[in-house]
Write a structure and sequence with these properties.
It is built from ten helices and ten strands. The chain starts with 5 loop residues before the first strand and ends with a helix. It binds magnesium ion.
């Protein structure tokens, strides 16, 4: 694969990402895939999707998990509803996560990305131990599939994330680094955080944001097109190179309600990334 190929979030069905035709039109060669809905996760769909990817010369690098009932309305609601944190849905979500991994395997994809949810900060609590056990169990399942888990960053500070990775203690758990999330959730400087967790970063999102004008960690910051927020796109790419990262730079811009603007802003991010890459 070329050095840091540009990527974009795409969907196999009606989802948050762009359609494959948009990826092709933009000349982008790698995608991360949003959670395929249950009805889409059939061997026939996998085959048809692979044929299209092959025709367009596109490679899928990560398939992301997502579940019914998750909401990102507010940071508090995110903490309550997202990932494997809610105990009442944990087992059902683990089962669905295994099914999504099996579908990803049909697509030949070796990495599963996930917002696993807010990891509890009290490492002596049952809530924390329950999360560690759930992620260990899932990593072990992925291992049998020849797959890795990439944790999406943002919901905890770099130090807490490192401690969690250590406690999970599996060799197929890594990080999908999203610099904008650290700003959105008020969890620290993205570049400093990237340096701290660098050795675990196996995929990333090119996304940007402005910090909240309210209370960090309580009120959301605002997502903006890549290059227009506080990430410092050039420093982000330079730092990725410094930590030895060579993988895809996946643009994330989730405004499916406005597909024309979405395509235009992804195109602008692509041009910006290519211009920075030329200087690295
Ligand atoms: Mg992201």
């Amino acid at each position: 694969m070329e050095f840091m190929p540009v990527g974009v979030f795409a969907s196999i069905d009606a989802g948050l990402g762009v359609k494959l035709e948009v990826v092709r039109d933009l000349g982008i060669k790698t995608i991360q895939l949003h959670t395929p809905a249950k009805a889409s996760r059939t061997p026939e769909n996998a085959k048809a999707f692979l044929e299209k990817l092959s025709e367009y010369g596109i490679t899928t690098t990560v398939v992301f998990l997502g579940f019914e009932g998750e909401t990102y309305e507010t940071i508090a609601r995110t903490a309550e509803t997202v990932g494997f944190v809610p105990e009442e849905t944990r087992q059902a979500r683990l089962q669905e996560a295994r099914e999504i991994a099996d579908f990803a395997k049909l697509l030949g994809v070796e990495a599963i990305g996930s917002h696993i949810g807010f990891v509890p900060h009290d490492t002596a609590s049952d809530a924390y131990k329950g999360m560690v056990a759930a992620i260990q169990e899932y990593c072990d399942y992925l291992k049998k599939n020849g797959q890795r888990l990439h944790l999406e960053t943002g919901q905890e500070k770099a130090e807490n994330l490192l401690a969690f990775l250590h406690d999970v203690g599996r060799d197929n758990i890594f990080i999908n680094f999203d610099p904008a999330n650290l700003i959105l959730y008020g969890m620290g400087n993205p570049i400093e955080s990237l340096k701290k967790v660098g050795k675990y970063v196996r995929s990333c999102h090119c996304k940007d944001a402005l910090p909240t004008t309210g209370t960090p960690g309580v009120d959301w910051g605002t997502e903006v097109p890549f290059g227009q927020g506080k990430v410092d796109a050039k420093l982000f790419l330079q730092t990725l190179k410094e930590i030895g990262y060579t993988g895809p730079l996946t643009i994330e811009r989730e405004i499916p309600e406005d597909p024309e603007r979405q395509k235009a802003e992804i195109g602008q991010a692509l041009a910006l990334i290519e211009s920075i890459k030329a200087t690295l």
